[in-house]
Amino acid sequence: MNRRLALAVVPLLLAVSGCTSGTADDEPAPRPVTAERPSPFRDCAALSTAPTAASPGSGTTAPASPGSGTTAPASPGSGTTAPAAGGPALPELTLSCFTGGAPVALREVAGPAVINVWASWCPPCRKELPAFQRLSERAAGQLQVVGVNSRDSRSGAQSIGEDFGVRFPMLMDQGEAVQRELKRNAIPLTLFVDADGQVRYIDASGALDDATLAKLVRQHLGLAVPA
Hints:
Elements: H1 2-20, E1 94-97, E2 104-105, E3 113-118, H2 123-138, E4 144-150, H3 154-164, E5 170-173, H4 177-182, E6 189-193, E7 199-203, H5 210-221
Parallel strand pairs: 3-4, 4-5
Antiparallel strand pairs: 1-2, 1-5, 3-6, 6-7
């Protein structure tokens, strides 16, 4: 009886042993690795470098005070607007870059700059993003265009960048820190920052088009950009 039991147990032990010590050929093939889609956005390495042609040219207007929507009057007969006092500095925040690399201190973004706070789930944000891309191309060498993707998924931002051809550098703000510091609840928000890093104007009017962006850049940063 014991002999028959022993003979019955041996195959079972061999079968169990084979489940844990099989050869490499018996192991399941590894799953293919899905390549990560390349970022549509440029990296953030150059954000601390000022544009090469930042000084306003002739025929431009001087910056206005932040949020005023107007420029300061000049002396009679001058035909230009007078410089206004500097505005507040950018929030003292450090944000990650969509493409990775070292985090970016927002105050180290070299102006003049236009900073757009947006999200893929925000219809007016999506509507105006192509205009910001065109601004970044038309104003190359005069100012920087920078995006801040707020409370959004990486895949959502990636898809919008791909679909709309957005290429300018993109910072990530998943905790809405920029909005909290600016005491603003809604997006899109657009910050117009001068060469000294001062916020000259914040626009929260909704989707901006090419002509309005060119007007605001001229009015608040003193730069003439084709619409």
